Amino acid sequence: MKDWNGRDELLARIAAALERMSPPPVEAPDLDAADAFVWHVDPDRLDPVPSVSRVDINLLVGVDRARDTLLANTLQFAKGFPANNVLLWGARGMGKSSLVKAAHAEAVRAFPGRVKLVEIHREDLPSIGRLLAILRRSDHRFILFCDDLSFDRDDSHYKSLKAVLDGGIEGRPANVVLYATSNRRHLMPREMIENERQAGINPSEAVEEKVSLSDRFGLWLGFHPSSQENFLAMIRGYCDAYGIEIDDETLRAEAVEWQQTRGSRSGRVAWQFITDLAGRRGIALD
Known about the structure:
Helix content: 40-55%
CATH class of the largest domain: Alpha Beta
Shape: elongated
Order of helices and strands: HEEHEHEHEHEHHEHHH
Oligomer: single chain
Radius of gyration: 23 Å
Number of helices: 10
Number of domains: 2
Strand content: 5-15%
CATH topology of the largest domain: Rossmann fold
CATH superfamily of the largest domain: P-loop containing nucleotide triphosphate hydrolases
Structural class: alpha/beta
Number of strands: 7
CATH architecture of the largest domain: 3-Layer(aba) Sandwich
């Protein structure tokens, strides 16, 4: 009897190991459950996001050209026409990720239920092929969003990204585009590019594979440090939107002092000032 029990236990362990090696197929997600999802692995799943954290597109000041270009590309995609993958690169805190979420909100407003925003984390890029297999079968259209995308030495995740940028044999699904944000135009540090050029047997080929990744984005939208006028305009826009009453002279004095203590001017710093101002005045930021 003990032998039989031992055998059953062994078979159960073998079965469990086989399931881990070859997990069951992913259940088809309910893509009507929300307008935005986050992709997770182990196990693979699309988790709905009932309420996306974002600001109105009209509150994004000083990025007019990038705003108009991204919005046109997004609405074009929502209508069912071809659209480009987009790399939003440049200065920290200037609204790159906020603009992606705001443009998606405008597409949802114009075409309810048609366009879904799917966030994928950089460390999950190796699973992007499995995600595309799920999205390819859907009638919805999808904006894949990878925030703060960059690669360091010996990082091979960029190879997985080519699946959505180039598509391989199957081609990129017609119902999918990729929007990525990065502080780096070429998605890798400049010193790393120079080091590989100097160390490579063929300097031009040493960095071609990694640097050319950014070339696969049809649109490059640059974000640059904010001027003081734009910084103050951002803050005034937030004050008007959230009902914070403050005269221009006081706003200017307090905002300039705030940015000097932070050592920078950006949309993020402007929002941090508004958070402090609203808290001191007992005003909720809903």
